[in-house]
Amino acid sequence: MKEISRLPNHIAFIMDGNGRWAAKHDLPRLEGHKAGLKATRSVIKHLGEYNIKYVTLYSFSTENWNRPKSEVSGLLKILEKSLNKELLELHKRGVRIRHLGHLDRLPKHLKRAIVDAVELTQGNTKMILSLAFDYGGRLEILDAVRNILTDNISPQNIDERLFSNYLYTVDLPEVDLVIRTGGDLRISNFLLWQSAYSEYYFTNVLWPDFNAEELGKALTDYGKRQRRFGRI
User: Is 209 part of the annotated catalytic residue set?
Assistant: First the structure.
């Protein structure tokens, strides 16, 4: 494991490239998603070795519903199976699982798996692993506005701290580092509020190929950056 001078407290991942990885290996797209989950398992383990406290994974976006139904159905089944398979091991390692996003559109078995994972691990403190299922940054902000209006908060009492308390990520620190694999240079509606001052790391490496070495490169790059937050 690399020695890094300064590590982020909260890392968020846009895990892109599963489909292209499958095409590259002449495999069905769902095989790419399975390979991506193996990479996810490995990355979480290595993040634990670096003692990273907060990790957020962009698992399924509000826009992903627009993919072919067969792919959506297969992907959600893979996610459910993986969560059930990994849960006890994550629990043993002190990982607390949180859900970001909506649950109502998810299949009932996946919804149940998420709820069970959140309940089982709620007392864990080693790592806070947030899974963004059916998540969209714009929807999160709209939900916050609706709930503020429902609570009849006076406009003059609304500041950044209050607004943050109405987001899905309440009690989570802002994101220090966003890592996106797959070569695209965009944030795809992910953690729009929470990443206002995040550092971004983009790599052409496809997510199933993102390993301990690639993670070390990203963390080393982060450690060299100066974060001024608008100051000199």
Answer: no
